[in-house]
Amino acid sequence: MHLTVKVLNGEECTVSASPSSMVTDIKEQVSALLGVPASGQRLTFKGKSMLDSKKLSEYDIVDGVRIMLTVKKTDNKDSAVITASPVWQKMLLFLKRHFKEKDADLVLKEFIKNFDNGLSSLSLDDIERLATSQLQTQIT
After folding, report:
1. Same structural domain for residues 125 and 84?
2. pTM, rounded to two decimals
3. Rounded mean pLDDT of the chain?
4. 47: domain range?
């Protein structure tokens, strides 16, 4: 069956599913089509929130219905950094090829935290030595 998932901003997509599909399956398809992380999605049908652990048949969903998508707002500093930085976006895409989306997000957040800690522990002299060694390798 085909379902339409509509975002409040007017954007929508069509996903394929069966009555035995889980809500998480729909979220993964929406994530791939609209770029909204599954963890940031809230799906509703007939005004009721859909639980990830339930099958579509438990909500009496049939072919052609419309499901509403609300994107959860996050106050997480790391999320803002990830979306703002092309480097972190590329890293996240790489991680998603090897991990589930939720796990990839956690790995990236931990990586960013370790990266920030490493940078904050560098002194100005350390940075100067690093820059000088990189410039010397560029010249040779």
Report:
1. yes
2. 0.54
3. 84
4. 2-71
